[in-house]
Amino acid sequence: MPSDIGSIKEFAGGKADTEEFIDENVQVELETIYTDFQKCLELRDKYMKLSLQRLGDNPKDKDSWVIYPQPPKPTWEKPQSQYESHKRHNEKKTVGEDFKFEECNIPEEHDGKPAYVVPRSNEYFRDLDYILKVISEGPAKSYAYRRLRYLEGKWNMFVLLKEYQEVVDSKDEVIYRDNQVLTLTKVFESLKLTAYDLSIDTLDMHAHTDSFHRFDKFNLKYNPIGESRLREIFLKTDNYINGRYLAELTKGKLIDYRIDLFAKMIILDLFEPLFEVTKDPKTHPELHIFLQRVVGFDSVDDESKAERRIHKKYPHPKDWDTALNPPYSYYLYYI
């Protein structure tokens, strides 16, 4: 979504205020879309502020933030020569081998004010209902479709302008296999593929339902096109190019690294230790050290499924006596 209502108008033509919009019905429709989108942007800012996700809210970005050990320096710069690359590869330390638990600073217990202001549940559901209403309206969907077409056109222009750079990059040496150093072009030639053959389907990294029943199938999903060499080139740090491509992907495309928790648990089992260690880090020192490196929690569900609202006003968890499970949005509020 555009960052402000001005860019929305710019995409629509930048003429919303002029006499060039002769058709009053079109103008009214556009103004309605602008108003709805502006309210959605304001709600996004509201919850970003409440959840301390704005620029400058993260304590890790402040000079007063102390963490041991310090984050490592980037190791993915392109090596000067083949000799240097092999030398760096052989001298590389195992991640974490220099970590000493006793040198970690474990703060004392503190009595601080709550860091967050949590909106009441009825306010949260009212705001959520408004957003769901906006995204389900026909004019908003049509506008979103046109904007996607616009962005696709910009992407195609980018591809045309960067075509020669792609050719140059494909000549980079990326892997050492069978006693020789291969360029990216040679790797794709050995796979009988070109970059134009790549798609979501050919990459075949979807985690389908059957993937979770067999560990061998699950592991194969980490290999693009089923090829371990592509995984080594693009998704590893311990490789010939010292993780350069993974660093670029992480910086430009990926959101975060994550640890998955697959279990049936009560919310208290997960969050009570987090509350305890936040108040007094010495209750769970290992957890305190781990949390210094965690940026957030995520709950996963199929959000494409429409959920039927079974209550006009949702009861508190202790009062939930319906046989049906609460909707996903209800879980998210309390999490």
Task: Give the overall pLDDT as a whole number.
Answer: 78
Strand order of the largest sheet: 1-2
Distance between the termini: 26 Å
% residues in beta strands: under 5%
Question: Descriptors for this entry?
Answer:
335 residues, mainly alpha, two-stranded antiparallel ribbon, 14 helices, 2 strands, globular, hydrolase, AMPD, AMP deaminase activity
Account of the 3D structure:
5% of the residues are buried. The chain is an all-alpha fold and 335 residues long. It is globular and about 65 Å long. It contains 14 helices and two strands; from the N terminus they run H-H-H-H-H-H-E-E-H-H-H-H-H-H-H-H. The two termini are 26 Å apart. Helices cover 46% and strands 3% of the residues. A two-stranded antiparallel ribbon has the order 1-2. This is AMP deaminase. Its cofactor is Zn(2+). It is an enzyme of class 3 (hydrolase). GO terms for molecular function: AMP deaminase activity; metal ion binding.
Strand and helix layout:
Layout: H1 5-12, H2 24-50, H3 82-91, H4 121-136, H5 138-161, H6 163-169, E1 173-177, E2 180-183, H7 184-190, H8 200-203, H9 215-220, H10 228-235, H11 244-252, H12 267-279, H13 285-291, H14 328-334
Antiparallel strand pairs: 1-2
Helix pairs in contact: 2-4
